[in-house]
């Protein structure tokens, strides 16, 4: 078609617009919102869940500090206002974390922003209710990350798929409850067990136990690097058996040269008297470890010589029993 050829007319009789020989006018480009980054909703849900236990414990701890500060301040009638504000901050903070979770998930293209927000808020409340100042704060470096990781994993499962929602809720709730309730006692037990293991000394060295049929072990302690086992006799006497397995060990006849002390050797025992009364009885285990038998608090006088005669080296099984449970 030449330049002089008339252009075809539209239905209303007007010439069609556009260069000769061109097809339909191309569509104008439209502005589109970029799709969310793959994985970002899961990361958002996990980060939100990780923060919830910290937030719950932090709100309660902050409220406690605020109330204590107000109670010890001369605020007069303003104290009531402070109390009301602190109490109102608790439900307000729960509403705030719900809104935060829902908004963050919606902006990142989450599948279940409301569900994740409810789970996170529930764990926020559980962490606040189960927060115990002394025990939790002492072990916050372990409790906080553990609770955050489990709750974060639960929120990620809720966001991942509707089929995993129930599992995610269960995981998050268990994490929010188990970390502050179960971990502090478990950590304290482990620390005490480590202390008992240290007090027992090298597994290759002897330690003393009472092997008489009428003696029952009642306790354990570690004093100045020396192992102390406490025993009760069926007749009521109580004694303390001290194994010298520390770094400041002394010979079996220590103090025997003191003016007020008198030592008697009898059948492998060193009976130490102070001003005529038996103060302690010592003996030596096969590997050279010194053992001392002392009276403990009791009614009447314990027969320390008879108790010392029942002393023998403990077995490896008894060592493990003492480490695992200091009292019977």
UniProtKB/TrEMBL annotation:
Keywords noted in UniProt: Membrane, Transmembrane, Transmembrane helix
Bias kind Low complexity: ranges: 13-25
Bilayer-spanning residue ranges: 50-72, 78-100, 112-133, 139-159, 166-187
Residue numbers spanned by region Disordered: 1-38
Keyword Acetylation: no
Protein name in UniProt: Response regulator
Originating organism: Nocardiopsis endophytica
């Amino acid at each position: 078609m030449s330049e002089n050829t008339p252009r075809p007319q539209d239905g209303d009789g007007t010439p069609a617009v556009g260069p000769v020989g061109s097809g339909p006018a191309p569509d104008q480009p439209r502005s589109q919102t970029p799709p969310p980054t793959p994985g970002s909703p899961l990361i958002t849900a996990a980060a939100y869940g990780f923060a919830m236990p910290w937030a719950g414990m932090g709100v309660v701890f902050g409220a406690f500090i605020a109330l204590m500060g107000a109670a010890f301040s001369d605020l007069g009638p303003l104290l009531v206002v402070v109390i009301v504000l602190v109490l109102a901050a608790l439900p307000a903070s729960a509403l705030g974390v719900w809104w935060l979770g829902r908004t963050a998930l919606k902006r990142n293209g989450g599948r279940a922003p409301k569900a994740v927000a409810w789970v996170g808020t529930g764990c926020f409340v559980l962490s606040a209710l189960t927060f115990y100042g002394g025990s939790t704060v002492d072990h916050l470096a372990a409790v906080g990350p553990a609770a955050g990781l489990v709750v974060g994993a639960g929120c990620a499962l809720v966001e991942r798929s509707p089929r995993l929602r129930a599992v995610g809720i269960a995981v998050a709730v268990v994490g929010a409850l188990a970390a502050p309730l179960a971990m502090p006692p478990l950590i304290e037990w482990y620390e005490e067990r480590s202390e008992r293991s240290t007090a027992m000394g090298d597994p290759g060295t002897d330690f003393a136990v009472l092997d008489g049929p009428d003696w029952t072990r009642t306790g354990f302690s570690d004093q100045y690097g020396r192992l102390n086992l406490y025993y009760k006799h069926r007749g009521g006497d109580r004694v303390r058996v001290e194994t010298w397995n520390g770094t400041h060990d002394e010979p079996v006849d220590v103090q025997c040269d003191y003016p007020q002390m008198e030592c008697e050797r009898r059948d492998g025992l060193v009976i130490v008297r102070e001003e005529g009364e038996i103060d302690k009885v010592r003996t030596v285990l096969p590997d050279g470890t010194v053992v001392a038998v002392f009276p403990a608090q009791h009614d009447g006088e314990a027969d320390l010589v008879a108790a010392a005669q029942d002393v023998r080296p403990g077995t490896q099984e008894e060592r493990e029993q003492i480490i695992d449970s200091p009292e019977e």
